Structures are given as structure tokens and as C-alpha cells.
Amino acid sequence: MEVLVVGAGAMGRWAGETLDAEFEVAFADRDPDAASAAADDTGGRVVALDTTATFDAVCIAVPITAARTAIESHADQASRAMFDVTGVMADPVTAMREHLPERERVSLHPLFAPENAPGNVAAVIDARGPVTEAALDAIDDAGNHVFETDPEEHDSAMETVQAGAHTAILAYALAAEDVREEFATPVSRALSDLVGTVTEGTPRVYREIQESFEGADAVAAAAKRIAEADGEAFERLYEEARGKRRRQGGPTDPGEASADDELTEGDAAEESTTGDDSTRGDRQ
User: Fold this and answer.
1) How far is 102 from 36, CA to CA, in rounded Å?
2) CATH says 2-149 is which class?
3) CB of 155 closer than 8 Å to CB of 90
4) Over the stretch 99-118, which tens digit does the pLDDT of each residue have?
5) What PANTHER family has UniProt attached to this entry (predicted)?
């Protein structure tokens, strides 16, 4: 079987390298040099972006804002199936239903940067068949965990795990003052690591996420509640946050509390400056 990967950026290359286990891979990109480099790296071939050739499957690996146009433009090249790895699901799934009503359709979101693969891959299996099954097998065989969702659940989750999380991290980076390394605490060090992870990315990618998903306003509103809280109100907000954390799978037994929870006021000054290295789960 053959697959055409439309888009030869980092995620397109990941798709090509991963699908190579089950497919012969071709790349098309508006930058022919990028397509050639991706093909060289994966042992695939290059085709023109406006090709009229057909393939068993077409994989759309373009920026979020270009997804619908790419799906419409390349629907005729997909003789049996189409899938996308754009990072948003409601609109691509709708577009694929519209332009490929009789073909297999899957929307995929690798929840990691390609250099951090393997990881979790969200999947909306909208119209299952042998071609999409082969693609899902290739992704699974590469060590990824594929789990099923629906467009509404996925896009709602991205408001928290992408738009909201990025807002909180970037806000901390913008608000933080320069301090000597010796003053770092486990919490501040972890946040600084996350700032590094986010800011090592591509601004355009993060911009598209912020424009595609809500979530920033909720983080800003929560920060305002904390900033304006008096002593008792702050404690209530703290307990509210702890309750949400526990409902999301955090420690529920007092004996499982974090090291920070176990500190007394006198111990606080003795906190270690070591902290766990953090990784992100988005493409971000």
C-alpha cells in the first residue's frame, strides 16, 4: 500500500517514518526541498503538491489552520482512506466526512513533539477499514499508545492540556523575576523546566493552538481569584485545587502527600533545590 504524506515538517516526517512499516511513503510539500529531505530520511519518494496520482491513503500533516483546505484539495488522491495529524479534530473530521464520504477516515493527534516519540496518540476512528487499521497497527508497533476518543472530547481536553497549560507556563515565564539559581525550589525549578520545554518550540505552532482552543481566559480568571484572595479565601482556593488534583488521580491518602505538603513553616527554608525533569505531552 502507498500513503501520501502532505506536509514535510516535523510531524509529517514522524508520520512518514512511523507509517513506513506498513506503507510505501511519498511526501508532498509546498517546499520541495523539505519534501526531498523528508523522503531521503525515510527512504520515501517525492511527488508534486498538485499531483493527480492516487494513493491508498493520504495523511494530512499541515498546520491546524490549513487542515480543511488540505483535506479538500487532496481528497481525490485518497483512493481508500485519509487520516490527519493536525492536532485538532472536530473540523478535520467534518471535512473528511464531507469530501470522503465513502472512504476510511481517522483523525490522529500524537500528544508529543516528534523528538519525544513514542507516546500517547488520540484517535477518532470515524470510518474504520483495512487501510486505517494498517496505519493504526504501524503507530502501535512503533511503541505508541493509541486510544480512542471523539472530536468533542478531544477538542475540549485540549482547552486544558494545551491552551490552558501553555497559558499558565508562559504567564509564569513573563511574570518571573531573575533570581539566583540558589533560590530555586522544587516547584520553581519544575516550572522553569516547563518554560524551557515550551519556549524551545515554534511560536507559530503555539499561536495556532491558542487560536484554535479556548482555555487561556479560564487560567487568567483563576490567577485573578488567587491574587485577590485574602487569607481564608486563599485557603479555600488551595483546598479547591487540591480536591481537583485528587479527582484527577493525585494522592488521596494523607500518607501519600507530596514532599511540599509535609513541610512545616520552619522546614520551608530547608527545601531541596533538586526537582524532577519535566516532559510535555503535546505537539505541540
Assistant:
1) 32
2) alpha beta
3) yes
4) 999 999 999 999 998 999 99
5) PREPHENATE DEHYDROGENASE, PREPHENATE DEHYDROGENASE [NADP(+)]
Model pTM score: 0.81
Residue with cell 479565601: 233
pLDDT tens-digit readout, 39-97: 999 889 999 999 999 999 999 999 999 999 999 999 999 999 999 999 999 999 999 99
Every domain of the chain and the residues it spans:
2-149, 154-251
Closest CA to 132 of 84, 83, 75, 99: 83
Report the C-alpha gap between 201 and 194 in whole angstroms: 11
